[in-house]
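Batch job 17 of 40 flagged for manual review because the log was empty.
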Amino acid sequence: METTNSQIGELIAQIRQERGLTQADFAKRLGTSQSAVNRMEHGRQNLSLETLGRISDVLNKQLIAVTGGTVNLKIEGGHELRGEITLKTSKNAAVGLLCASLINRGTTTFKNFPRIEEVFRIIEVLESIGVQARWLPGNDLELKRPEELRLDKMDKVAARKTRTVIMMIGALMHDHESFKIPYAGGCNLGRRTVAPHLYGLEEFGVNIHATHGNYNVSVNKKVPQRVVLYESGDTVTENILMAAARMDGETVIQFASGNYMVQEVGFFLQKLGVQIEGLGTATIRIRGLSGTVKKNVVYAPSEDPIEAMFFVSTAVTTNSKITVRRVPIDFMAREMLVLKHMGLQYDESPRYKALNGQTDLVDLTIHKHDGKLRAPQEKIHANVYPGLNQDNLPYFVPIAAVAKGRTLVHDWTYENRAIYYTELTKIGANVELADPHRVYVTGPTKWSRADLVCPPALRPASLLLIGMLAADGVSTLRNIYTIQRGYEDLAERLNSLGARVTVMHGI
């Protein structure tokens, strides 16, 4: 049955009102006039697929299903970029904070929250179990959880699209003796074990049994004096922080991750009244809260170091001079040191604080290298914080491709991610797969245009975009959902730097 403009307009008006937006608010976010919004809602304006896609993004709701159901990018590459870009807040911090918000029965407001697919999926999960979620002006997100959550109503489809649901166990265990959540999903990077989560939560009296596509959870709470993590993982540390947050006693976490998203969850829990010492180190000491937590809190997460590395890699690969503002430098310092020794010139501003009052930020100006980069003598590999971030490692592949010489990139973290780096050979890069974890990249590269489908993983997909920006001619990158999971308004923001990227819906 054909959907008319009138019917679409009524739907837009209904969803807009549910989101608490006035026509003026909606128009501002959409980048149009209030009169245009009024025409849309009264069925007096024809709507293109691109406009419908943008409206769906602003309202966090797909309005109609278009043919193919995909979003593609047309990239006219080979243009030098210039100007400034301000980072968005962290996707990885956001997903942990959404899970941690379940601890609070008051109103939680997150300032300037990322509007990306990964966040939308978790919000869908939260709404399905009874949490009221509302976007406020300025991309603030307001969450109100009910006294009783409807865990049996959990949106399984949305839950299986993200690995984040596993982190809900640490928050949910305090109010539920038994429950189940769907198996985690996310990027297709090979088998990613959840055993460290299970081992850590066992210390709190949580038993997890996997059957029929679900984690079946039973809880007999106890306060462990000490939890030794099976691995120094980010999400497992966050999970254990949430588990300890409402334990009436002190818990020490050993071999914890000190990474940025762990710190963000810790800072938020501190605002709820949880006493935490040692954030940013391998030993964290938590004194939890007894009883129900009900506070009205406002928290502003810091900016995204992974997005920072994306723009740094884009500048280097396209041989451009750009300034990246509000970079969390403590989580980029090792990366910038590697680039310095490869011959990259850059300027760093004095440090200043993020809105959370904790994280140090700088502005980075990346200078043109004009082909003078050289391959590093040592291999490039990730490590736990304070080492080179595992999510930043992939962005060295296109950088190595424009450097003179042969670079070994060792991606030991995931089983299959390094294999996806060979996709760059389709646009001219010389990438040799040594084994499932190691690639040799030989530069310099003459990038070439191509028409490709995104691989099913966020970082490898974004590498293709970077290479296409450097390639002369018009390329097409199809089905960019994996990129949308981690980056907000990416085409628009690249275009603000002088790129020529067009979003195409359902083509």
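Reviewer: the log was empty due to a logging misconfiguration, but the result itself is present. Residues 74-88+303-505 form a domain with the UDP-n-acetylglucosamine1-carboxyvinyl-transferase; Chain fold (CATH 3.65.10.10). Unflagging and moving on to job 18.
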